[in-house]
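Board notes, transcribed. Complex of a protein with flavin-adenine dinucleotide.
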Amino acid sequence: MNFDLPPELAELQSTVRRIAQGKVKPRAREIDSTGEYPADIFGVFRDAGLLGLCIPEEFGGSGAGILGLTLAIEEVAKYSNSAALMLLLTRLPTGPVMIAGSVEQQERYLPGIAEGRTRAAFGLSEAQAGSDVMGMRTRAVPDPGDEGGWILNGTKCWMSGVREADWYTVFAKTSDPTSRAHDSITGFIVERAWDGVEVGRTDHKMGVRGVDTGELLLSDVRVPAANVIGEVGGFRLAMLGLNSMRPIVAARGIGLAEGALMYATEYVKERSAFGKTIADMQGIQWEIAKCAVDIEAARLLTYRSAWLADQGKFTKEWVPYLSMAKYHATELAVRASGLAVQLLGAAGYMEDHPTELWYRDAKQLTIVEGTSQVQLGLIAKGVLDHDLWWD
Ligand SMILES: Cc1cc2nc3c(=O)[nH]c(=O)nc-3n(C[C@H](O)[C@H](O)[C@H](O)COP(=O)(O)OP(=O)(O)OC[C@H]3O[C@@H](n4cnc5c(N)ncnc54)[C@H](O)[C@@H]3O)c2cc1C
């Protein structure tokens, strides 16, 4: 067993750390307060080759894999979860295309993402169907004018990066809309420029304000057969895509927790009360220690899950390991950012410090891409089925 990162990933980590400190950190507060998509940060990521980390070299990426992207996101999330989400969006919508897409789809859609010429977003959720995705109403019916083609109608919601995206990975019911059978849902690549594709309302959010979320409206959108991802009725693909994303979302949590704890630790070393510094108090030291233990446990879970996902181990039997990373790291982000606010006292509650921003940003992480409760359900199922067993 070797816990050291391979040299190329260690170098990537230190390069992104420098970029995060030099370019992302100074912009983090402004990104939040303006709520504007930080095009300059996108340019920094593009120029540093970070948009193609998880995309194979033959499609213009660097092939650093899910572990490479996880490491990069951890560094960036120390300062800005909006910027970290921009990196995550290089994988969320492209995952299904890499897992089950045709070579033509991969050649057509992946190089643009890797080179920063195009952006994509992922549409699974609907207003009435978040955790319960089988309740989706977006419907695809065969296109009578195009053999193998489909016509899509419906509204996707809370879609991250919907406004900036050039194309979308969208899931729709391809058989009886009331069916809850897994083979009733299919994945499609839908281009923004096509007739009937429109961005609807965008949301006012408590955090992660630099990347918009909102509705994608699909009205009689004609999708050619060439844009069906994998098989018709291949809903399993959505789950495989999400399973393989668990370490990447977890990285947003561990980075945020590390940023918050480091900041609060430096503060309590300077702040005095009762004739000593706050850091001299044992009650405070224990909170710092417990959070540090949590962070290292989350990092181990996250790196292992990224390593598993890079080996294609994101099918059912690996789900508990992947979900554990997402669950633990994102719940940790909420706890650590809460601790950071508390350690700074009133100062931590004010916009003079980044703690209140981390606190608002962290909460998104326990909701997106499968809530904490959904992850607990998946972990429990893994234990009940003996996918995770110690005997
Ligand atoms: C900022 C943001 C960005 C997002 N980006 C995207 C995106 O890019 N693409 C996309 O498709 N979606 C996106 N989402 C949607 C996200 O995936 C859903 O919000 C999430 O899946 C939960 O669905 P829901 O909000 O409908 O909650 P619900 O499913 O209504 O759940 C409400 C509560 O009930 C709990 N619950 C639900 N089912 C169970 C159960 N079986 N057992 C126990 N508790 C349960 C949940 O954990 C939660 O606490 C985004 C959401 C947010 C907040």
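The beta strands are 120-123, 139-142, 150-160, 167-173, 185-191, 197-202, 213-223, 228-229, 272-273, 276-277. The chain has a mean pLDDT of 97.
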